[in-house]
Design goal:
mainly alpha
Length: 119
């Protein structure tokens, strides 16, 4: 992106200032990903990645949809749910690790968790 000509419209336009078709943009993105050494990236994967990153940053469904171009918020909600689930999992694991006595490890407390002291 740093090498893009900032005076020439956007990458959504052709070099002649015309709107690209969906297939044309997808094909060009494929070429750009390959040229950048990212053969496993796809236009859909990039769209999904930005949606998830925006959700993780706290963007609303409407804001994410404005960036990704989704026509309905149903698909955007999937990205938000996945991002929220990961964040919630991290938060709750952190709660597990912080013990009331200030200890920061998960240990097997024999009298409360194990059937026998030898466990």
């Amino acid at each position: 992106m740093a090498t893009c000509d900032r005076t020439a419209g956007t990458f959504l336009q052709t070099e002649y200032g015309k709107k690209r078709s969906d297939k044309s943009l997808s094909g060009d993105m494929r070429k750009w990903c390959d040229a950048a050494g990212l053969p496993d990236c796809t236009p859909h994967g990039l769209r999904k990645a930005i949606a998830r990153r925006l959700a993780e940053a706290g963007a609303s469904a409407q804001q994410i949809g404005a960036v990704t171009g989704h026509k309905t918020l149903t698909e955007v909600q999937r990205y938000i749910a996945a991002a929220n689930r990961e964040n919630m999992a991290s938060d709750v694991i952190a709660m597990l690790l912080v013990r009331p006595n200030g200890e920061l490890t998960v240990v097997n407390f024999p009298k409360t968790l194990a059937k026998r002291d030898a466990n």
